[in-house]
Write a structure and sequence with these properties.
By secondary structure, the protein is an alpha/beta fold. It is built from five helices and 13 strands. The strands form two sheets. Strands 1, 2, 3, 10, 11, 12 and 13 form a seven-stranded mixed sheet that branches. The protein has a six-stranded mixed sheet with strand order 4-5-6-7-9-8, covered by helices on one side. β11 and β12 form a beta hairpin. The termini are close together. The chain binds fe (ii) ion. Fe (ii) ion binds near residues 100 and 102.
């Protein structure tokens, strides 16, 4: 029986609560609010995010992955509606979340901000050393979801992300252990994980280092958001090609030059001694999500142990 995973990202749930940028004032928030009213609100539509959630639930996936940017300017009033949106996917154990740069748009105290998403970031395994401990690892059947935290408060004109040496090191170790145990390793990160995948001011600053980790220890699939575009790449690793897949914004109407909202379904199977992962895109088109043709992703390492899908 295959394990079916849904992936979406960059909900940028609106509308912005009235006056949100003025309470707990921060210049970056004000600039963000102005930009939201000028641009985003025409393209990022909460009704599309709700339609996406309905369409995902209709697929009855075994698990759902969200790659962050669920809010806009990290106004304190944004977090409770965002939490409620995620809660609409069902049990906490069913959905895994990694934060994006907009979720830490300004430096919000943890208990006023990211703590709202803790139920979807809880780790089944302890990560050595780093505190707060990332990556967060969740084990579901023979699939290991490895969420990284690249979100850090940024200066007003930047949307970069950073993992830092501790998290990179912990990620390398975790991926190696999970490989030995025969899990299908799925990495979840907000920022595109490879160098050159985003302009400098929006990039993961240690993408070069993450690329080395992935090339060395491998994974079976990497999922990301941030660019609001479909991105598909096969990274060469020591154990074969690794699919790196980015998904458009979950609430995009597709207006102007924006790519319309989409989510991706992944069907994970063990074929002989290898993981086989097929992908089916679902794209917002004329008021509903349309299922596209499915295709098999380039496959990675042989399965180490006797895990059966
Ligand atoms: Fe982002």
């Amino acid at each position: 029986v295959s394990f079916r995973l849904a992936h979406f990202s960059d909900v940028h749930l609106g509308p912005l609560p009235f006056g949100a940028a003025f309470r707990h004032f921060a210049t970056k928030r004000l600039i963000g609010a102005v930009s939201w009213h000028a641009r985003r609100k025409w393209n990022q539509r909460p009704d599309i995010a709700i339609a996406l959630r309905d369409a995902v639930l209709a697929e009855a996936p075994d698990h759902v992955v969200c790659s962050g940017d669920i809010v806009n300017i990290a106004a304190r009033e944004e977090f409770a509606p965002a939490r409620d949106f995620l809660a609409g996917f069902g049990a906490f154990e069913q959905l895994t979340f990694a934060p994006g740069n907009h979720d830490t748009y300004v430096d919000v105290p943890y208990n006023k901000g990211l703590s709202h998403f803790e139920p979807w970031m809880a780790s089944d395994l302890k990560t050595p050393q780093a505190d707060p401990a990332w990556p967060r690892i969740r084990l579901r059947r023979n699939v290991a979801l490895v969420s990284l935290n690249s979100a850090q408060p940024q200066k007003y004109n930047l949307a970069q992300g950073t993992l830092g040496p501790q998290q990179l090191d912990a990620t390398a170790k975790a991926l190696a252990v999970l490989r030995e145990r025969g899990f299908c390793r799925i990495v979840n990160i907000h920022h595109p994980p490879l160098p050159g995948f985003a302009p400098d001011r929006k990039a993961l600053t240690d993408a070069e280092e993450l690329k080395s980790v992935l090339a060395d220890v491998g994974a079976e699939l990497v999922l990301h958001g941030h660019n609001h575009k479909t991105m598909m790449h096969a990274l060469k690793t020591r154990s074969g090609p690794l699919a790196v897949i980015g998904v458009p914004s979950a609430s995009s109407s597709g207006a102007g030059h924006h790519e319309a909202a989409a989510f991706h379904m992944f069907s994970i199977n063990r074929q002989n001694r290898e993981w086989q992962i097929a992908m089916t895109p679902h794209r917002w088109h004329e008021g509903r999500f349309i299922k596209g043709a499915d295709f098999v992703l380039p496959s990675g390492a042989p399965v180490r142990q006797n895990q059966s899908a």
